Amino acid sequence: MKKIFIYTVLLILLVLAMPLVLSDFGINLATEIYIMSIFAMSLGLIMGYAGMVSLGHAGFFGIGAYTVAVIGQYVSNSYLLLLISVVISGLTALITGVVFIRTSKFYFLMITLAFGQLLYVLFWQLKPWTGGADGMSVSAILNLGFGEILSPNAFYYVMGVAFIIAYILLRLFVESPAGKITKGIMENEARMSALGYNVRVYKLLAYTLSGALAGFAGSLYSYFNVFVSPDLSSWTFSGQVMVMVIIGGVGTLFGPAIGASVFICLQNFISTYTERWPMIMGAILVILVLIGKGGIIHWLRYFKDIIFLRKQTDEGAPQNQVKKEEVVN
Amino acid sequence: MSIFLAQLLTGLAYGMLYFMIAAGLTIILGVMNVVNLAHGTLFMLGAYIVFTFISDELNFWIALLISVLLTAVLGIILEKLLIKHVYGKELEQVLLTFGLSFIIADVVKWIWGTEMQTLPVPALLDASLSIGEMVFPLYRLFVVFIGCLLALLLWYLESKTRIGAIIRAGVDDRAMVGALGINVGLVFTGVFAFGAALAGLSGALGGPLIGMYTGMDNEILVTSLIVVVIGGLGSWKGSFISAILVGVIETFGKVWFPSLSMLIVFLIMMVVLIIRPQGLFGREVA
Amino acid sequence: MLELQDVHSYYGTSYILQGVTFSVSEGKCVALLGRNGAGKTTTIHTIAGLHKSKRGSIRFKDKQLQSLSPHQISHLGIGLVPQGRRIFSSLTVKENLTMSARKRKANDGRINWGLEKIYELFPVLKEREKNLGTQLSGGQQQMLAIGRALMTNPEFLLMDEPSEGLAPVIIDQVGDIIIKLKETGLSILMVEQNIALACKVADEILIMNKGKIVWNGTPDGLMKNEEIQHKYLGV
Amino acid sequence: TSVKDGSNESKSSSGTLKIGFILSQTGTFAPLSEGIINGFKLYLEKHDGMLGGKKVEIKVEDDEANPQVALRKYRQLIHSEKVDILVGPISSSVVYALRDEVEKDKIVLIDANAAGDDLSWSKKSDYVYRISFSNWQNGSSAAKYLANNVGKTAVVLAPDYPAGKEVLRAFKDAFEAAGGKVVKELYPKLNTNDFAPYLQQASAENPDLIYAFFTGSDGIRFVTQYKEFGLKGQIPLAGTLEFGDELITQPAGEAAEGIITGINYSPYLDNELNKQFVQAYEEKYGKLPNIFSVQGYDSAAIIDKAVTEAGSANSEDLIKVLKGISFDSPRGPITIDPATNNPIQNFYIAKNKLKDGGIVPEVIETVENVTMPETSPFE
Amino acid sequence: MSLLKVENISKSFKTLQVLYNVSLEVKPGERHVIIGPNGAGKTTLFNCITNLLPIDSGSIYLDGKEISKLSPHHLVHLGMSRTFQKNNLFGDLTVEENLHLALVAKKSYRYNIFSPLASRSDIKKETNRILDQWEISSRRHIKVKNLSYGEQRLLEVLLAMASNPKILLLDEPTSGMSPAETAQTSEMIQKLPRSIALVVIEHDMEVVFAIADRITVLHHGEVILSGSPEEVRNNEMVKEIYFGGGAKQHA
Ligand SMILES: Nc1ncnc2c1ncn2[C@@H]1O[C@H](COP(=O)(O)OP(=O)(O)OP(=O)(O)O)[C@@H](O)[C@H]1O
Ligand SMILES: Nc1ncnc2c1ncn2[C@@H]1O[C@H](COP(=O)(O)OP(=O)(O)OP(=O)(O)O)[C@@H](O)[C@H]1O
Ligand SMILES: [Mg+2]
Ligand SMILES: [Mg+2]
């Protein structure tokens, strides 16, 4: 509980401090990173805490984005619209999840890929509603009750807040009984069942939450980018988020957010400086795997631990006692 | 009637192409449990290598051999240098092979440029057969033939040698296989190289049909992943059947449900996985 | 034949083997006893190369083992029946047996273990030949693990709790089998919890506690020494 | 003042002109992007790196053919690089995404390739000017000739995506207006590896001709498979300008022979400017230019002319002169139609001939000054 | 009235029939031991009772309620819990976390997605009680996969007991344990409150005779005898197929 509090305060400070050092474009990029971080965290939730690796998560993102674009033509209340997005994407996750969670591991990966592709084609072919492959402009304007949000700075703060809220909600879930149980199911499904848990309910719960959150991210993105196209649900986009989650660190909440930031910055800046960006990007991924400790966040932790441990030894570390006992039981 | 037969044959030939493309992936993914996202890129590389050596006035067949050898060598290098660090770590494999595919694809673009290319059909097979009133390219029949040959080879390796059992055991419990006196590292390198060589081979043989262009690697990859999954992991026979199934259904789908043509392979996969969550021939997961 | 000299092993920072010294001579069976977590399995793994020791020397027929990889050690003629069986779950019973099969190199008149011989020893494996290894009952898996090790035709067998999960009547059989194996010239290092079995087949008993060998002697010696039994084995 | 910290004020006063490119350098559109860049750079080189009397600095961004990425790159070019003019995208979905933004930010976008019809109709913007051609132009140009000289019934094929549909509807409109009849429309998915089932269906209709629009590798496969399945020589094949372009005819080789196309450019066009252009291009890049190189070249040309005429790179000044601007291009005279912001240009009915092992589109007839209707005839 | 009643169940894997009309009755609080040669079908019987494997025919009642179609997790809530012959734990979690997972199963807040588990004091207390009782408090932060085999066996039993079952099925609880741990576990089992009925598969005869009220002997999937320890000990057939000559060790 205390941990949540500290992290939240740190995050708030971060959100507040960033505009001081960023340029216009930097603010824009940071806004996008917040949204992508929410998206990556939603995938990180099922990957790291439920063992479900999805290659169709952009499907939910697309649902959220298109909901704002399409229904936003008729509904102007932003809160209502966001709620509708979240409900639609959550419901879709719930319904498809019932079928999908019967498959496991790689099969799950592939069936979700098919799901994402299905939505992609749907958005592509329902031209009268979605603008088809050419995409459509978003007419809805974000208004949270204190005026229309149009300036980059306003967007920045709104998305920053959304990111923090998403983080807190996820943190609560992960620490909650249901979250811990879901993690247990990821470790050993059969045993959890034998211990008396209805494993499918928990998997479905996680999948639904994750889908709803991805939809939420998508709807924010729609407001931000004011243009939607089927690419939002393409498998390459799903693949990118997956990469974000992995490079950030699977099994942590914040890792995927870090992964998203790093990935987007790399993708953006390397390609600006060289046409050979795929090669450099690829090399970075390879290097990350080879020297990685399972994600960038673990490096941060590693550094933190170094500092932290030094402190402890200064105080005459109580941890050492445990260590000694471990030597031989 | 004759158009029906023609389309059946078309589908079959196309399915065999799928099988060739997916074979290397099946082995690496299904047997070694390594997700090789660079498979499509190796396919592409295979085609480009043939392209290069043909332009050097070499015979198609010699160029093909060179392509297979070079991709195999690349496979060895990759395994020894990189892949061997990520056995059993699926997510790291994803990242690593994804990165590799980026790199290789960009190198290909660097060397061969962005223009689209095709491989000429080898002179020997550059003819069309007239079957009744319809015309069918000989080269496609040749692809069917090679597909069958490949299936035969895989069948031989699996049932007449211990190699298949050793690899599967190695995936189950690598240390234990070592303790039984088998050099697991060597076996895995060999298998990875074999898979890479198959990618190269299918690229060389598929080149005249599909051509080469930037971005093709992803399409090839997705297609082969789908074929493998429909068939069921760990079963090349499954891939064989599923490739033909996908080829035939897709061909007829183009005619009967033209509006679904973008989706059809994905739909097949979805339906199969809903009915059989472990694929057609996959082992049931306990 | 096998000689450990002051072997030290760690898992990370946990100090497990704290200077283990013993030897097994040719054609003998040595039993290693001790409480759970004493380090017996670690000892076996260290010999088989599955775990690297930090210090000390392990010699087998005049060869140093520490720097060798498991498959090289196996090729020197050391077979392993691991704790918990570690049957390959995606292989059938038959594949489990044949995948590692090796013919005996030297023609020294000992049994050349092959599929037929194993099936003779454990007929039930033949009946289940086509089943996946993990579809066997616990005891059957144990037989399979022993069979699998024999298929490599070792000169030296490491057995980690071979009687675990076996019915008494089968334990008797295993005991007889071990004695028979010994008669064919095989040397054995066996970790056991079943003291009766250990005493029945072993020529020498070692007791390990907290990573050290704390007692060694003959089976008779152990049977007579109630204090040791009580102190280290909790009997 | 330097460009880096430049704001609006620096744009007009500075001697440097900063041009941002949003192209698709990865993926299937890579060769198109490369052609455009090459053409643009060639023009620059010929003019000492100056356009409209200003030193030019260019910045190229890769949109991966994805509007979402394109928008991010766009923001970077505008906010961070502060470019004066954009030259843009390959794909229509990207141009539609950018359209609203450039309008908002008042930045001139020279559309160097995206062919979506609506950009000239319902989504026309004062800030967006197309230099290439529209799907409508591409589809309709050869229709009359085909109906009058080749045959009255046609099976038409195009990929199942907006451009495919737009090209075919334009063709059908014009073809049927000229007395022809489209008997079947087939839409394979984008990136179809195997056209056999479609070819089989098409030939089953026994049409007088088959008309097709396929780009990139789809185009190569379609043309080669047309031959492999024995249709070549049986049913005449006609197509859009893509089928007369080096990108497809070169790899397709012999299979592309005999196709009748409506092209707006070929390196073999007989005019003085083209001869110079082709020679210079071959010298610099070691290969023949194609339509995309010309689009790049013309993008530079139009900027050059517009900035000169406007006397500044200020958007508001530029859009005043861009409407109705005309200049000579290697493909012939070009005028930007103020009604559609789309170029009025010549199309050439050509037939692919085999010459020295390569394919040369031989011009049969010139259709002069092909325009677009002012509003969509389909609504 | 019996607590668990297994009536004529049969089970086969493809062509291999493993259980033939097996019947079994366990009264509340009874200690029922199942013995039989390897491969007799004991574990399969457990798997059928807990519905990890569907039965081919027959019926199973718990407290008079037919349970053969209920899913495994449902059974836990009816008061039936089990251990596995092969350790089946959460290797990457610590001992403490393993226990937490086992303890929450019956809590009403197991579906709660907001309030942190760590702040639940009841779980903490129960965990501490178990750790202290079994003198493994020092191991609480160790990842389970790093425990020795015998320690893992103990944890296996503790997890099953955590749900406070009415009936507990133990599959070879002492296999792999040293004589010391075996004795300790045997003692623990004996000390379990009589409110828990036990069905135990066991090969260690000392343990069997120490705990059994009743013994059922399974052979080739058939019950060949079900009776008191005395009856079983003296049965010639059981001696032959099961005890063997080695019976002397526990005579
Ligand atoms: N991979 C590992 N990492 C860390 N510690 C380990 C690991 N494996 C074993 N240990 C620890 O090493 C000690 C010795 O383990 P070992 O498996 O050798 O015991 P053992 O004598 O074989 O016990 P048992 O009779 O229970 O099998 C134990 O305290 C155990 O917790
Ligand atoms: N999934 C399965 N598929 C096929 N056969 C199986 C399967 N599970 C068990 N068997 C077979 O059923 C028989 C009974 O197995 P079971 O595990 O019930 O024996 P057990 O009595 O528990 O033996 P042990 O004391 O050795 O553990 C064995 O012959 C085994 O090979
Ligand atoms: Mg052990
Ligand atoms: Mg059993």
TrEMBL record, chain A:
Molecular function GO labels: branched-chain amino acid transmembrane transporter activity
Species this chain originates from: Paranoxybacillus vitaminiphilus
Protein name: Amino acid/amide ABC transporter membrane protein 2 (HAAT family)
TM regions (residue ranges): 33-51, 58-75, 81-101, 106-126, 154-174, 201-221, 241-266, 278-300
GO CC field: plasma membrane
Keywords: Cell membrane, Membrane, Transmembrane, Transmembrane helix
Membrane-topology annotation of the record: Multi-pass membrane protein
Classification via Pfam families: BPD_transp_2
Cell compartments where the protein resides: Cell membrane
Lineage: Bacteria, Bacillati, Bacillota, Bacilli, Bacillales
TrEMBL record, chain B:
One Pfam family hit: BPD_transp_2
Keywords carried by this UniProt record: Amino-acid transport, Cell membrane, Membrane, Transmembrane, Transmembrane helix, Transport
This protein's GO CC annotations: plasma membrane
Subcellular location: Cell membrane
GO molecular function per UniProt: transmembrane transporter activity
Transmembrane parts of this sequence: 12-30, 37-54, 60-82, 94-112, 138-157, 177-200, 220-248, 255-275
Domain of life: Bacteria
Gene Ontology terms: biological process: amino acid transport
InterPro entries named in the record: ABC_transp_permease, BCAA_transport_permease
UniProt membrane topology term: Multi-pass membrane protein
Matches recorded under PANTHER family: ABC TRANSPORTER ATP-BINDING PROTEIN (PTHR11795:SF442), BRANCHED-CHAIN AMINO ACID TRANSPORT SYSTEM PERMEASE PROTEIN LIVH (PTHR11795)
Family per record: Belongs to the binding-protein-dependent transport system permease family. LivHM subfamily.
Protein name: Amino acid/amide ABC transporter membrane protein 1 (HAAT family)
Species whose genome carries this gene: Paranoxybacillus vitaminiphilus
From TrEMBL, chain C:
InterPro entries named among the record's database cross-references: AAA+_ATPase, ABC_transporter-like_ATP-bd, ABC_transporter-like_CS, BCAA_Transport_ATP-bd_LivF, P-loop_NTPase
Keyword Nucleotide-binding in record: yes
Pfam families linked to this entry: ABC_tran
SMART domains: AAA
Gene Ontology terms, MF aspect: ATP binding; ATP hydrolysis activity; branched-chain amino acid transmembrane transporter activity
Domain ABC transporter: 2-235
Keyword Transport: yes
Cited SUPFAM superfamilies: P-loop containing nucleoside triphosphate hydrolases (SSF52540)
Alphabetic keyword roster: Amino-acid transport, ATP-binding, Nucleotide-binding, Transport
Similarity section: Belongs to the ABC transporter superfamily.
PANTHER family: ABC TRANSPORTER ATP-BINDING PROTEIN, HIGH-AFFINITY BRANCHED-CHAIN AMINO ACID TRANSPORT ATP-BINDING PROTEIN LIVF
Name this polypeptide is given: Branched-chain amino acid transport system ATP-binding protein
Organism of this sequence: Paranoxybacillus vitaminiphilus
Automatic annotation (TrEMBL), chain E:
One GO CC term on file: plasma membrane
Lineage of origin: Bacteria, Bacillati, Bacillota, Bacilli, Bacillales
Pfam annotation, one family: ABC_tran
Transmembrane segments: none
Alphabetized SUPFAM superfamilies for the sequence: P-loop containing nucleoside triphosphate hydrolases
Domain annotation ABC transporter: ranges: 4-245
Keywords: ATP-binding, Nucleotide-binding, Transport
UniProt GO MF annotations: ATP binding; ATP hydrolysis activity
InterPro entries: AAA+_ATPase (IPR003593), ABC_AA/LPS_Transport (IPR051120), ABC_transporter-like_ATP-bd (IPR003439), ABC_transporter-like_CS (IPR017871), P-loop_NTPase (IPR027417)
CDD domains reported in the protein's UniProt record: ABC_Mj1267_LivG_branched
Record keyword Zinc present: no
Organism: Paranoxybacillus vitaminiphilus
Protein name: Amino acid/amide ABC transporter ATP-binding protein 1 (HAAT family)
Domain of life, per lineage: Bacteria
Gene3D superfamilies the record matches: P-loop containing nucleotide triphosphate hydrolases
Keyword check for ATP-binding: yes
